[in-house]
Amino acid sequence: MTDRDMSPLAVVVVNYGSHTLLEANLAPLSRSCPELAVVIVDNLSTPGERIAVTALAEAEGWYLELPDDNEGFGTGMNRGVARAASLGRTHILLLNPDALIAPEAVAALLAASERSGDAMVAPRILRPDGTLWSAGSDLYLGDGRIRSRRRRVEGPGIRIEPWLSGACLLLPVELFRRAGGFDDEYFLYWEDVDLSHRITAAGGRLVLCDDVSAVHAEGGTQGEGGQSAGQAKSTTYYYHNVRNRMLFAARHLDLADLRAWRRNSPRVAWEILLQGGRRQLVESRAPLAAALRGLRDGDRIARRELRRRSARE
Hints:
The structure is a single chain. The protein has two domains: about 10-215, Spore Coat Polysaccharide Biosynthesis Protein SpsA, Chain A (Alpha-Beta Complex), CATH 3.90.550; about 235-310, no CATH class. About 45% of the residues lie in helices and about 20% in strands. By secondary structure, the chain is of the alpha/beta class. The longest helix is centred in the C-terminal third of the chain and has 27 residues, at about 285-310.
């Protein structure tokens, strides 16, 4: 329990086959803070999951959005935020199903957001054993690599753009709208990098609350940016991380950086593959095939953008 008034806040969660995680992680929070609005967007996975999440939402008093198919993470979040805004909530907590956060931590994030004004705030995210999973990450604009903030490399000519993990983010609805919400084209992965970029471009700030923590339940969603190195990832992870890197470049970078990212794509794709360890590459061709598809589709995006810019000159 917390004395903090949570009535300005809505928690928005995109679900995909994870109703057991919602029951384990989200239900205790909403029961402790009955004034919280909780919006669940159930991206369709199976009929059984749809029935289960509907029953859970009804039992817990959650608001439910039911797309006819799997719209992707960003599109689902946009739908959920629109529902939260229609309820009159001024702030939103964007939360993964596999994230566990205490009421006191939510209250601290809300207070930090209100103090900071135009800011998107995030906690440190820990693994269940207490080790660090995420405390902010950096995007290196020269080549499109991502590293954790702890491993920051600085020096002449190195340009860094910080970003916050989409596993747990709190911000004003007005700032989310001003930044344009999530970009639907990402579907999955890199959408939080993109949102962080556009929050900053819209005049907002990114704030990492080092004294506030949430817990990431491993085995739910994939790790980020090398912080779960050695653990095998899904083919979805490899494909979208490789492809969406170039989507970000096409959306936001100048011509020189776009070309540099394109040249570096094979090397960076290999590094992304190695986040899952070498053993997986011996056991199956699927990870490599997914990364190659991501390279192909990312390069198509880059070439299309290069042609578009050339035609404008």
